[in-house]
Design goal:
The radius of gyration is 21 Å and the shape is globular. By secondary structure, the chain is α/β, with parallel strands linked by helices. It starts with a helix and ends with a helix. It has a 7-stranded parallel sheet with strand order 1-2-3-4-5-6-7. Helix 11 links the parallel strand 5 and strand 6. It contains 14 helices and 7 strands.
Length: about 350
């Protein structure tokens, strides 16, 4: 087995099981180190099993490399595969089976942990047909949000990647754009027009009063470039960042705006978010909203978090046809483009 592939797959299983970041990075950095070797140097090291002098490699990663280079599946990787055979969530199997894509993901272009091509490769391996790359917008400096110049550069990279994939898989040009205090979107309008998918989310001043938050969200939803309302309450229910209460807003007004302006309500699948809460998910379903099951993945292993979102959608009685990432990519892209033409 290729040692680099073995190390990256271990990283996937660790991310999927929500292991500590430092453990994941140990295997991903080891993969980068081995991958950077020339073919001749790698062959030489495999021949004499000489790995310890390479920076960033420890006993565990060296064992994985040695066992993979010897032609077998490393013991640790086999153990992670066995543990990963158990589903993350049950009850959403029918929805998961028809889920074609993921419309909210992050890469090393902003605050994600892996390069864009690796996220794409993992999505393909999980059976997805398309993936939207939605790195953050400029205002979110803590997440290294994309300036207009950097977003243009990323669009070019995505276009090149799609040309290479030649219809086998589609990478959608996207963004998770900050909803500013007055409801404007945090990126140039002309640049947003070039994107396939725009996820609009509130990331700041989450504790403002209900009326102000409602007006702020509705203004963003009414923007013809907005396709998905991301993690609508902004809550955190667990995890290393601690907990955070829900933002307060008039949910009926916000979801009515989603209906009027044809914006999907995101079912954010991250376990620490589970956003919207169940009562709001039920309300949006009763009102007839469209939905998007998104992982908000910041690492390849988190792309499997869609299991959590599918489980919640099924429990809320949401029909698959109301979930936009069950649609064929052509239908999805046309739906998003049609909204811009209506402005």
């Amino acid at each position: 087995m290729d040692p680099v592939a073995a190390l990256r797959e271990i990283g996937f299983w660790l991310e999927r099981s929500r292991s500590d970041t430092y453990r994941v990075q140990a295997y991903r950095k080891a993969a980068d180190t081995v991958e950077a070797l020339s073919a001749a140097e790698r062959t030489e090291r495999e021949a004499d099993n000489r790995w310890a002098d390479l920076p960033g490699l420890g006993p565990k990663t060296i064992t994985v490399i040695s066992q993979a280079a010897a032609g077998g599946v490393p013991d640790y990787l086999q153990g992670r595969r066995t543990a990963g055979a158990e589903p993350l969530a049950t009850g959403g199997e029918k929805i998961l089976a028809v889920l074609r894509g993921d419309l909210h993901t992050h890469t090393t272009w902003s605050d994600g942990g892996s390069p864009l091509p690796e996220m794409v490769q993992t999505a393909r391996r999980l059976g997805r047909e398309y993936l939207a790359i939605t790195d953050h917008s400029p205002r979110l400096k803590v997440a290294h949000g994309l300036s207009a110049e950097r977003l243009r550069e990323q669009i070019g990279l995505i276009d090149d990647l799609n040309a290479e994939l030649a219809g086998e898989f589609t990478v959608l040009r996207g963004i998770e754009v900050d909803i500013l205090d007055d409801g404007r979107l945090d990126q140039e309008s002309a640049l947003l027009d070039q994107l396939d998918i725009v996820v609009a989310s509130v990331h700041s001043k989450l504790r403002i009063d209900s009326e102000s938050m409602t007006h702020r969200m509705v203004a963003a939803i009414a923007n013809p470039r907005t396709n998905i309302l991301g993690h609508c309450t902004g809550r955190l229910v667990e995890g290393s960042r601690g907990t955070r209460p829900e933002s307060t807003f008039d949910a009926e007004v916000v979801f009515a705006a989603c209906l009027q302006f044809d914006v999907a309500v995101e079912i954010n699948s991250r376990p620490e978010r589970r956003d919207p809460p169940s009562r709001l998910l039920a309300l949006a379903q009763e009102m007839g909203c469209k939905f998007s099951i998104d992982t908000d993945a910041h690492a390849p292993g988190q792309l499997d978090f869609s299991q959590y979102g599918a489980q919640r959608a099924a429990a809320a009685g949401i029909e698959p046809e109301m979930i936009i990432d069950t649609w064929p990519v052509e239908q999805l892209v046309e739906w998003a483009a049609a909204k811009k033409r209506r402005r």
